[in-house]
Amino acid sequence: VVSDYDMPRMNGIELLDAIRETNPDLPFILFTGKGSEEVASEAISMGVTDYLQKSFGVEVYELLANRIENAVSEYRAKRQAAESERRVRELTEATNDILWEFTADLSEVLVINSAYEDIWGRSVTKLRDNPYDFLNGIHPEDRERMKDAMRCLTNGESADVECRVNEAEEYQRWVWIQGEPITNDAGEIVRVAGFARDITERRNRERELEATK
To answer: Do residues 182 and 191 make contact, with C-beta atoms less than 8 angstroms apart?
Structure first.
């Protein structure tokens, strides 16, 4: 939307306010001959995308065209990113496996789905607040094995480990965890990602078979 400030029924700020109520991200450029710090400040506080003062000559219209192109490109990019994020979220919630992604140094959780809470018995919120909180849900005897796997990932190696989790269930759950480092074009580790699968039934069957031997 490109709007002037002075209009018959409402001014540009009032139009911006009305549009922002239903379309908070829609590009809105205030192109006005009423240039003042007060108008500019109010427009910015209302979430205007860009503010441009009218002047004589074709240059200002070339500048306006450039601002419109930039605003539309940014708007489309944000919408595409939001749509991609929505699809990823739907995919992660469509599986019973835990899907996870951390920063390269494991200092921040980038992706975690709700299966984590069911399998691990700990909250996603706590994990996001403290990315190492998942260690508290691992059997004390298995934590060092998990730490070894974490060191592998941060060193650029694959990780493959099985351990017992979920303190509330007395660590009766077994999970199989696989992880891979993700690198950029320069070969630098930028993220680590993988999955954790509940293998409790398989482990129980193996134990039963061992008992019959």
So the answer is: yes
**How far is Cα 13 from Cα 8, in angstroms, rounded to an integer?**
13
Question: And the tokens for 130?
Answer: 């403290």
| Calpha distance 97→32 (Å, rounded) | 55
Tell me the fold of 2-91.
Answer: Rossmann fold (3.40.50)
| Token pair 């009423």 in the structure block, residue | 34
For 68-106, the pLDDT digits (tens) are: 888 888 888 888 888 877 887 777 777 899 999 999 999
Structure tokens at 180: 């891979």
Separation of alpha carbons 14 and 65, rounded Å: 23
Which of the two residues, 210 and 136, has the higher pLDDT score? 136
Fold of 96-212: Beta-Lactamase (3.30.450)
Q: Which amino acid is at 145?
A: R
d(CA 116, CA 211) in angstroms, rounded, equals 31
* Coil, helix or strand at residue 3: strand
Per-residue confidence (pLDDT) for residue 164, from 0 to 100: 98
Length of the chain: 213
Cβ of 46: how many Cβ atoms within 10 Å? 17
- Spatial separation of the C-alpha atoms in residues 65 and 208, rounded to whole Å: 73
The segment(s) of the chain belonging to CATH 3.40.50.2300 are 2-91
